[in-house]
Each structure stands twice: as structure tokens, then as C-alpha cells.
User: Fold this.
Amino acid sequence: MYLTNALLRSVQQSPDKLATLFRGRRRTFAELQQRVARLAAGLRAHGMGANDRVGMLALNSDRYLEYALATWWGGGVVNPVNIRWSAPEIVYSLDDSDTRILLVDDHFLKLVPEILCTARHKPLLIHVGDGDAPDGMLSFEGLIAGHAPIADAARGGADLAAIMYTGGTTGFPKGVMQTHLNIWASCVQRLAELPPTPGAVLHAAPLFHVAGLGRALVQFLAGLPHVIIPGFDAGEVIRTIEEYGVSETLLVPTMIQAVLEHPDFRPSRLRSLRRLVYGASPISAAVLDRLIEALPELELSHSYGMTEACPSISSNPPVNHGPEARESGLYRSVGRGGLGMLVRVVDGEGNEVPRGTVGEIIARGANMMAGYWNKPEETAQALRDGWLYTGDGGYMDDNGYLFIVDRVKDMIVSGGENVYSAEVENVLGRHPAVSASAVIGVPDERWGEAVHAVVVLRPGVQASEVELREHCRQFIAGYKCPKSVEFREALPLSGAGKILKRDLRAPYWEGRTRAVN
Assistant:
């Protein structure tokens, strides 16, 4: 149960098969293994020891996969850096995890001076690019060319594999400690329940995120090729799927919506795509309906998880996205607990609640994190008696299917009534003028909290606050309807495509002792 096993297995079984394709650059599995073994030797020669952390600040590329595999090959621990962070946030994660080696691509070279000036320990810098390395930096390609391959360290099991910092949507970032067993268990669960489609997977979601990197490892286990683009761009996603005959990809709901609304989108251009896995945040019923209508033959699977679960907790397979499931509402579920996992819905005291009752989702399995790096109190709060407390509110039906209603922290309490923002967002999404929305609670002297909607309208379409409020009243109770509506051109997103509700709330709760009334 060590992560480089996936590469070794692919080399043994299909050494000359295409492994990675990035902007026309192709590597076979045999070539990839040689590069990984040589890069691991270079990292070891420049100070990486067993369990040492190695960071990477870069857009997606074939070299990103080489970095992760080489770090593990040499016995180190990956610290993939969130590409949406500012320099102070990056420095915090490097200092907190004592990361002494940092790989940086051309896109992020501008952040290097501030990182070097403010980091507690100036990291050794490695330039990831095609040109000459800047002064003071080693060359990624130079390390590969200048070192003979070394044997795989074969660290695995309970050995630490990654420290992945939470995206900052819930507060100051925490380093999630993931062992080889944690990630391996999640990948095998995914492979057993939803084997990859024959053909290439497109990596458009960020590889610094556990979902993106985890999906890459599943592809290695299956011995299938990776097609990689630097980051999500709806037009490039469409072109890449069409050009290379991509059969599967992973997208978050905001990305799916962007593809559907792109002027170049035509179902015929995505005819090679057999499956789309979506997750990371709730998808509105309106977007899901549009996707199914546009691509009725496409297999859809919803994965629910989080960084602390490395990342999978449950999945809703393609069979539950058909006409019967749509009619019954089952396609709105996030599925049932994954292979080798137990999932429960509990009240505030940790007692399991009756089926159909909303509570907090907790989960237990081999893929649950080892804890938060250097944060024992936060670890004890999240991991209790072997169970991971997700912070997500939901309910379970009589057949064990989970339905997410909201993040527990996103629940709005107005006049003593619970309002789940996801429910209001789904209703807003049915209005033809609404492109996206985020619903938050804001202070209200009478009701404690009031429902406030931040809305992005479709290009060239207009709607008023009164119109949207009246629209909501057709579908949900009056106390759930937005008391106020704010129009914006875009919503703040994390690097993984999640809406940053914390940023939306901040101005309303500034100066208060707590962000709830």
C-alpha cells in the first residue's frame, strides 16, 4: 500500500503505452518512471530525507505528476500549494509544515522574492519550466538529466504521504495529514466502485487539490493515459476533449456551468466523453438538468468527500442519474458510503438520528486523515472515537442514501427557524436570469440572522430583487426567501472552484465577536 506502486505496475504491464500528454509533449510509462527515479535522486541529493516535505507552486502539467511521484519515490512528503493563495498564505503553509524545498513554475516566479523575504526558513527553490533556471534556483530538467535513477524507497502504509492544506473556505488553513494508506484506500475504493473508462482522463481541475491528484492516482492504477491542461478554461476543455478523444473528466459544478454556457459548446464536440464525475460542492438542480438535457448519453457520477477523507466519503453512480432517479429525486443524493466505510448522521451529542432527519454527517474508514499537522485540539474536534466529523449537514433515507442540505456552518437561523442555504440557491437557480448564487446569513436585529442572496445574472439578462424574491416564494416558505439580494459580476472562488462564502460574509459581520446571532 504505497503510492508509487501504481506507476511500477503500469510500467511492468504496459511500458510503451502513453502515460502523460501535455501541450503535445508525450511520455510513455517507461519514460515517466525514468524521469521520476532521476528526479527523486536529485531531490535526495539536495537535502530531501525520509518524511521531509517538498512543496510545489505551479499550474497543472505533466511535471506536476512527476513531482508527486518523485517525492514519494525518494521517501518524501508532498505539500501541494494552493495556487489561489497570496504570498503570506503560501509562506504560512511552508513555515507551518517546515517545507524546505519548493518547486515553482514560470507562472508563479513573481511570488518568489516575497516568499524568500518572509519565510522563516528560505526554501531551496527549483524552477519548473523549459527555459534556463533563474539565478538562485535549480533546474527541474537539470536535476533529471544530472542524476542517475535510484531505487524506489517504497514507503507506504502509515507513513505520511501528503500534507494538504484546506482551501481556506472555513478559516485559517490547516494541514491535513494523509498517509499512503489513507490515499491508497480512497483510490482503491474509487477503482472498485467506478472503474475508469477506457481511454484518457482530462485533468482540468487543479492537481494541488486532493480530488485532482487522487483521480490521477486512480488513472495510474488502471494503467491509462493522462491528458493535462494548465488549469480550467471552458474553451480549452471543449477543444481538448474533442482533439484527443478524452473519455472521462472530473469537474466541479462551477466548471460544468461554464462549459455549458461557453459559446463554443456543442454536444457533438464532446462525443468522445463517456463519463463526467462531479463534486467538491453542491450542484444546483438547474445546472444538473441542463447537463443531462445537453448530453443525455453521458454517464454522470457524483463524488462527495473532503480533504480530510482523502477525499471520498460516498458516490452516486451513473445508474442513479437516469429517468427514474430523476423522477424520484435520487439523482440529488450524494450516494451511499463507499466500500470499506461507515457513514452516519448524528445530532449535536453524536447520537445517530432517525432516517430522514437532518444532522451532521460523520464517517469512518481507512481513508480518514491521520489528523491536522501540529494542531492537536483541531484534530481532537474533527476525529472523535475513530469518526471524522465532516461539518456537513444532511440526512439519510431508508436505503442508506445521503442527501446534503448544507454545511453546518452555512445554516442560517432566522427567527428560530433553520434555513439551509443550498435549498435557497437551488430555487434561485431555477430562475432563467440567474447564472449563479450564494446565500448567506447576515445580522438582523429582529430575526437574529436574515437570508441574503448574492446573485450573478446571465449575460444580457436582467432581473430585479423583487422579481427574484417573488420567484422564491413560489417554491419555498416565506422565512426561507431572501430578505435582500445583491448583484455581482462574479462570485469569489477558491482554487478548487468552491464559492468562498466566508469572503461574502466578512463585511457584514466585521467588528462582531462572532459570525452568528
Observations:
- Residues 29-45 form the longest helix (17 residues).
- Residues 411-509 form a domain with the GMP Synthetase; Chain A, domain 3 fold (CATH 3.30.300.30).
- The two ends are 48 Å apart (CA to CA).
